[in-house]
Amino acid sequence: MQESLQDEIIPFIVPPFANSIFIEGVDENDENEMTLLFTKFGLLYKANRLKDNPSTMHFIYYSHNAWVKCHNELGNSFNIHSNRYELKKFIPKKLTNNKSILRLPQMYNLCNYYIGFNAWSTEIISITCDFKDEIQTNGITKYVFQYTTITQINFINFPNVICRGYGRSKYTGKDYNRADRTCKKFSVACSRKDMFKKLVICILVTIKDGVCKQKAVPTTIEIGKQDEDGLNQLFIQNYEEDEEEPNELNDQDFEEILKLI
Length: 261
Hints:
- The chain is of the alpha+beta class.
- It is built from five helices and 17 strands.
- This is DM1 domain-containing protein.
């Protein structure tokens, strides 16, 4: 019996492991075509081979409805070329509450997929230099900057849904201009991550004349501390809530940090 699609909420966090599908014994020549097949049902968070069992492909959907559609259409098995594959469901022994935040590019992809590439935009409301300093370390001059940024996301089809994010970054580097520029960029990135953390995408399911349709609606949620204007506020340090200390970066760890944003 096929499972029905339900209204659901998709937050900008790592999706639950229960949205997983495992395919064993995947031929290397079928891997790309299989991935394309699964993207037909919804946006994938992950599509890769297991490290401890390279012959098994692991797929995770952001949406549980996408997982349901995949099983409803493919059933228990499917063919690619001359190979037959079985869908292996993941049944967790206990429910886990995963709140790991997505990387910023993944947040963009999620919003593009459900809201539309040209249906939303972000803007910088303000970017303020809290302080800048020059320090001497072992005879080497270094420059310290700290910026606080406020960004906002707007939706063309949902003009009443407005969400702001707050980010603060502290950066130390040997080059004055690079340190200044880098601190600004990272402060903006932090504020945008904070902005998406306050959003969820509500999927509303309707059935009319036997046709099932889904509508994606962005909605704000309450997270963290509020400022004087009643807007959510969160300063980010190492991508975790910390309202006392900003991100402290230097030239050496900047490239690694960028990979995590």
